[in-house]
Amino acid sequence: MSQMSMNNLSRRDFLRGLSALSVSGLLAACSPAGTPSGSEAEGGDTGASQEGKTISYWVFWGSPGAIADELLADPELGKYIGEGNTIDFKSGVDQQARLTAVAGGTPPDVGILGEYLDFMSRGVVDPLDSYIETSEVISQDKFIPGNWEVIQYQGTVYGIPGFECFVRRGLEFNSRMIEEAGLDPENPPVTWDELFSWHETLTKFDDAGNLVQYGIDPYDAEGGTGPGNDGWFMAESWGFDYFDPDTKEFNLDNEMMVQGLETMGEFIKLIGPDNLAGMRQVEGQGTWGGAFNAEVQAMIIEGYWHPGETVNEKPEVAPFNRSAWVPVPEARRGTKIQFGGGHMAMLFKDGGNKEEAFGVTEWIQSDYVCNLIFDKIGWLPAYLPYFDNADQEKYPGLKFYFDSVKEATYWGPFIICEIQSFIETQYQQVREQVFRGEITATEAAAQLQDEAVKEWKAAGFA
Amino acid sequence: MSVLTQIRQITPRERRNILVGLLFALPWLIGFLGFTLYPIVSSFYYSFTRYDLLRPPVFLGFDNYVNLITDDQDFRIVVYNTVWWVLFSAPLGVLSAFLMALLLNTNIVARSFFRAVFFFPSIVPVVVTAFVWQFLLNIQYGAVNGTLQSLGLPTVPFLSDPKLVKPTLILIHMWAQGAAMVIFLATLQDVPRSLYEAATVDGANALRRLWHITIPMVSPIILFNAVLSFISGFQYFTLPWLLSGGTGGPNQSTEFYSLFLYRNAFVYLRMGKANALAWILFAVIIFFTFVLFRASGRFVYYAGNSR
C-alpha cells in the first residue's frame, strides 16, 4: 500500500484533484487581466470606490514611456481625473494589439492610438461634444483651427488633440552644409525649381559613382506623407483636393498630380532610386530623417518636432538647424503652406470611466504635461494657452513654426476619406514606379485614380 | 454490436476513467476549440464577407475570391513574387542544408565547432538576422559596401535594387539552414557504413558513392525538408518585412503573399479579403504538398519498403 493510500488519499484522487485545480487555474488565467470589473465595466460612472478608479490610458508611441513616471507624478493629476484615481499608462502599443483590443471590446478607457479616421467612421469611439460643452479646459477657440479640424467626422468631435500636434510643414536645412556648398542659408529656396538647384549643388558622388551626400529626398519624412492625419504634402504643395467628401469623387488623375510626381521624382533620379531605397531601409529601423541627423542629407521636409528631436537625438547637428517654408510650384510662388494635423485622445465606446477618461484629455493640455513632453521629447500640443508659456526659441529653427501659424497663407485641408490608408500605400507604390522610370507620371495618376475608385467600392463605402 | 449497446456496457469505473481522461485533456481541448478550430471556421466564413473588424460583416458570396483573381493588380505581383521565391528558395535551401551536413559529416578539424557555427543562424531571432544583414549589405552604411567604397569600387545595391533583392534574400535563406542541416546530419550518420565499404571495394569514387548511396538513403529527409521549405516559403514574411521596413520594397519586389495579406488585414482593414487570401494560400499549399508527395514516389527511397 502506498504512502498516499495510507493517508486516505489515493493516487487517483490526488490526480483528479490536481486536474481540477489545473483547469480552475487555467480558466482563471484565461480571463482578461485588463477587463474592468464592477462599476468600471458598466461605464464606471457610478462614483469612485474606496480605493479609487484606475483609468487605462494607452498611446502608440514608445517615447512617452520613458517619462511615464514623471508624467504620472503630476501633483495636480487628481484635479483632472478625480482624487484617489490613478492612470494605468501604456506606451508603445503596437498596431495589431490596439486594433485587436478595440475590435475585441477591450480597449483602454482613453487612448491616442492612431487609426483615428477608421475609429471615427466605424463608430467605435464616443462623440465628445457634450463633454466639451461642460469643460473649462477644452473648447474650440483654445486650439489651432487646423488641429481642431482633424478631430471631427461628419461634424461631430471624436477626439481631443494631445501630446503631439501643432503644425507639420517646414523645410529644414543644415546651415553648415549649405554654406559649405556656397549657398546662402539666409535665402532658402521657395519653389521646386530653386530647391532642385540647391539639391544639385549639394549632391555629391565619389569617383566610383557612389553617393556621398545629397540635397534632399523630397519623399522623406513629411514630404512623403500621403493622405492621413499629417495631410498629403504633394497635394498641398500643388494645391489640389484629392477627394470630395460630399460627392465622394476622387480627383487623383489630374495635371497637378502629374506635375507633382514628375517634379519630386526628378530629385530621386538625380541621387539614384537604389540609393534612396538603401537610405530608407536604414531609416526604417529607426526614425525619420536619420540621413539628416547623419549630415548626409542637407535638407528635409519635416514638422515642428524636428528642431527639438534633433537637439535630443543629435545635439551636435542641432545648432545648424534652420527652418523655412516648404517649396511650391512656380505658379504658386509666395504661397506659405502650413498644415495642422497630428494626434488626438479618444474615448472608446467599450471603455469605462468616461468622465475620468475625458479628464485625461484635459490633463494632457496642462502646463505640467506639455512642458515635460516639450522638454524631454520635443513635441508640442495644439493648445493655444500653452503657447503663451512655451519657450518659442528653445530649439534652433523652432520659432519659424510658431510664427508660421500667423503667417501661413494656405492651410492644407484635412480631407475625410475612409480609404486614405489604401491611397497612401498606392501613392507610395506608383511614385516609386515613376522615379524608377517604369511608368509615366500620367499613367501613375490614372492608375491611382482607378485603384482608388475600385477600393472605394470594394471596401463598402460606395 | 451497436454503438449504443457498447455505451450501455461501460461500467461506472470506466465512465469515471473517461471523465478523468477528458478532464486531463480539457486544457488542450479548450485551446484547440477556442484558438484553432473556431478561428479556422470563422476565417472561412469571413472570407465570404466584407469585414473591417469594427463593423458587422456583410456577406458577399465569392466576391472576395473573384475580385482577387480577376481584378487585383497587386495580387498578381505578390503571386509572382511568392512563386518565384518558393521555386528558388526551397530547393536551394535544401541543397544548402544538405551540402553543409555533408561537409560536417566528414572528419574535418574542429568539427564540433563548425557544427555549432553553421547551426548558429537558426537560433538567432529573425529580427537580429535582419539587422545583421542590413548593416552588412546596405548600399550606404553596409560593411560590405563600405569596404567596396573604401577600395574605390562601386557599391552593390543588394537590398535596394528590385532585381537584386530576391537573390540576396535567397543567399540569406541558404545561410540560415541550420535546423534542416542538423536533421540531414543525423540521417547521414545513420547511413550504414557497410554500404560505403562495399561500394569502395567495387571501385566507386566519392561522387558515385554520394549519388548512389548517400542521396537515396537520405531521400526521405530531402522530401521532408523540401515540404517544410515549400510551406514556409509560401508563408515568408518576417525577413522581407523587416528588411523593407514593412513596405515590400524596393518597388514591390519583396511584397510576398503574407505581407500583402497582412497589409489588407491590418492596414486597409479588409479582413474579408485577407481571409480569402489566407484560404487561397491554404489551398495552394495543400496542392503543392500533394503534388510533392505524389511525385516523391519517383525519387524517394524508403529502405525496407517495396517502393
Explain the overall architecture.
- The complex is a heterodimer of chains A (462) and B (307).
- Chain A is of the alpha/beta class and 462 residues long.
- Chain A has 2 domains: 47-166 and 341-387, Periplasmic binding protein-like II (D-Maltodextrin-Binding Protein, domain 2, 3-Layer(aba) Sandwich), CATH 3.40.190.10; 170-339 and 413-458, D-Maltodextrin-Binding Protein, domain 2 (3-Layer(aba) Sandwich), CATH 3.40.190.
- Chain A is built from 21 helices and 16 strands.
- Chain A has helices spanning 3-6, 11-30, 68-72, 77-81, 95-103, 116-121, 129-134, 145-149, 175-180, 192-202, 233-238, 255-271, 273-283, 290-293, 305-313, 354-363, 367-376, 384-387, 398-407, 420-435, 441-458, and strands spanning 54-59, 86-90, 110-112, 152-153, 156-157, 160-161, 170-174, 204-205, 211-216, 243-244, 249-250, 297-302, 321-324, 337-338, 344-347, 410-411.
- Chain A has a 5-stranded mixed beta sheet with strand order 2-1-3-15-6, covered by helices on one side. In chain A, strands 8-9-12-7-13 form a 5-stranded mixed beta sheet.
- The radius of gyration of chain A is 26 Å and the shape is globular.
- Chain B has 307 residues and is mainly alpha-helical.
- Chain B folds into 2 domains: 12-59; 70-299, MetI-like (MetI-like fold, Orthogonal Bundle).
- Chain B is built from 14 helices and 2 strands, in the order ααββαααααααααααα.
- Chain B has a two-stranded antiparallel sheet.
- The radius of gyration of chain B is 25 Å and the shape is globular.
- Chain B starts with a helix and ends in an 8-residue tail after the last helix.
- The mean pLDDT of chain B is 92.
- At the A-B interface, helix 2, helix 5, helix 13, helix 20 and helix 21 of A face helix 2 and helix 13 of B.
